[in-house]
Amino acid sequence: LIHGTLYQRFLGLAVTHGCVRLNDSDLEFIYNNMPVGGKVFIY
């Protein structure tokens, strides 16, 4: 799951069970530029 977070100070730390958390500006960029059904590759 890719989503934002209320706790941006924890970005980059292993505090979830596998979710990809983004800051607000990065999340907004992806929302505005990623086509529906587009593939996301996570490394």
Residues in helices, as a percent range: 10-25%
The major pleated sheet works out as: 2 strands, parallel
As for the number of domains, it is 1
Question: What's the number of extended β-strand segments?
Answer: 2
Task: Tell me the Rg in angstroms.
Answer: 11 Å
Question: What's the rounded overall pLDDT mean?
Answer: 85
Rough outline: globular
Task: Name the helix and strand elements from N-terminus to C-terminus, one letter apiece.
Answer: EEH
Measure the end-to-end span.
Answer: 14 Å
- Helix/strand-derived category reads alpha+beta
Would you write up a description of this structure?
This protein is globular. The protein has one helix and two strands. The longest helix is centred in the middle third of the chain and has 10 residues, at 24-33. By secondary structure, the protein is an alpha+beta fold. The mean pLDDT is 85. The chain has one domain (2-33). It has a two-stranded parallel ribbon. It is 23% helix and 9% strand. The chain has one helix spanning 24-33, and strands at residues 2-3, 20-21.
